[in-house]
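User: Show me a protein chain along with its predicted structure.
Assistant: Here is one chain, sequence first, then structure tokens.
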Amino acid sequence: MTKKENQKARIMRYLDIHPEGITPYEAFVHLRITKLSTRVGEIIRDGNYPIKKIMEYKLNEDGSLEHYMRYWKAGVVDA
């Protein structure tokens, strides 16, 4: 198994266990994956694991708006 395949497998396993999905920050902290969007794109292109995504927004303490993607297994939690 290559490093890329191993990362994809870890993402899919994480999504199976966590129905709320995963963000790039969570992928880095929990899985040590820095290119989540790239790996998710590869998983989607492979076509054997359904993933949905949504842009989330958060207001920081300084008043600035932060945005990031959240990915989850389709059919588990649909927005």
